Amino acid sequence: MAVPVFCNSCGAEPRKPTPRFCLTSCGHVLCELCLLKGKKDECLICKTACQTLILSKQTNPDIQALFMGVDVLCNKYSKQITQVSEFQEKHRKHLLSYYKQKAAKMEESLKKVTQQIQQIQCMKPPEKTAQLPFSSISRNSLSIPSRKQNGYSSYPLHSSHPSTSE
């Protein structure tokens, strides 16, 4: 249901033959007859300086929306919002798909490089360790006596303090 248009001065509504209606920049609606009664570039209602716009079917859609019913506007913008939302969702999916493909390519490249590094490491001769002056003596030729050979048992030593009862 559209908002009824009427002159804010005389209360006239559009009829056939109808006077044209104007919208002032201060937000008042005036019929053409009342507009002629006032001063030029001054609102007849609030007496402030203003400009006027003749209301017609050629009026800017944003201005026409001021006179539409809220239910009509809701339906119109609901459809628009749905279209925008669907477009943006589709765009996000394309972007996500692009990044997934890019990540998969990077993972594949990483696997190849890792395999190449492993192959290079396998082909590389082992590094030689610095020779120590005792290198001619093998570690096994040096014998370290065990505790038993020294006469020590492998049992832990206990304190040999005499008890007070002895």
UniProtKB/TrEMBL annotation:
Disordered, as annotated region: 141-166
Example of a GO MF term: SUMO transferase activity
Keywords carried by this UniProt record: Coiled coil, Ligase, Meiosis, Metal-binding, Zinc, Zinc-finger
Domain of life of the native organism: Eukaryota
Ranges for domain RING-type: 7-47
Family annotation (InterPro entries): Zip3/RNF212-like (IPR042123), Znf_RING (IPR001841), Znf_RING_CS (IPR017907)
Coiled coil: 96-123
GO BP of this protein: homologous chromosome pairing at meiosis; protein sumoylation; reciprocal meiotic recombination
Cellular component aspect of the GO annotation: synaptonemal complex
Transmembrane segments: none
Keyword Metal-binding: yes
The protein's name: RN212 ligase
Species per Swiss-Prot/TrEMBL record: Grallaria varia
Lineage summary: Eukaryota, Metazoa, Chordata, Craniata, Vertebrata
Gene name tied to this protein: Rnf212
